[in-house]
Write a structure and sequence with these properties.
Layout (H helix, E strand, L loop, with lengths): L1 E4 L3 H12 L1 H7 L5 E6 L7 H4 L7 E5 L10 H14 L5 E5 L19 H4 L4 H4 L2 E7 L4 H7 L16 E4 L14 H4 L7 H16 L1
Parallel strand pairs: 1-2, 3-4, 5-6
Antiparallel strand pairs: 1-3, 2-5
Helix pairs in contact: 4-9
Amino acid sequence: MIFAERKGPTMRNLRSVATTCPRALRWLAAVVVAFAALIGPQATGLAAAAEDPSCSDVEVVFARGTFEAPGVGATGQAFVDALNARLGGKTVEAYGVDYPASLATDTVPAGTVLPDGVAGTLPPSVASHVAAVVLFGTPSDGFLNLVARDAPPVTIGHLFAAKTLELCNPGDPICFPGGTDRSAHSAYKTNGTADQAADFAAHALTTRA
């Protein structure tokens, strides 16, 4: 998921990465349950959008988890609701990434991160306005090796690494070493993890305001 203060060229550029690069997206959607990024207001280029009353204050772009219904998914909705409650009346619009959230034979399981290859397609002026990235259930190396020996490592682009929060429920077999509790991987929406992610995201937005 990606959050942006106001809409404009920044969001169009980011959405084009998700919609016009299917091979990259299959890889992006191949590593984690979901990802989130917060984009703060641009110093230039978004003035007109900021004055448009139809624009929301914050936009959330969320890649749902494996097998979840189209849209932001249950975890995404829990996150959006929690974020709404923390932004003091700011309007929030949610956008679900349009991709097949399913297992694929030529990739690893659904989910996503922001690798250098994709971040590199964004102009530096756009990438610099990403305030935070939140990852739920980032796959461990051991899990990736079980799924596909040639699976690419889970890496976060250098432009986003310092802005990233990775969340892993204890016992989650996807991200927790030795984890065997499958229910832990689907509990992010109910066990307070979405609230923790929303705290992180809201703080990133307010400190950039």
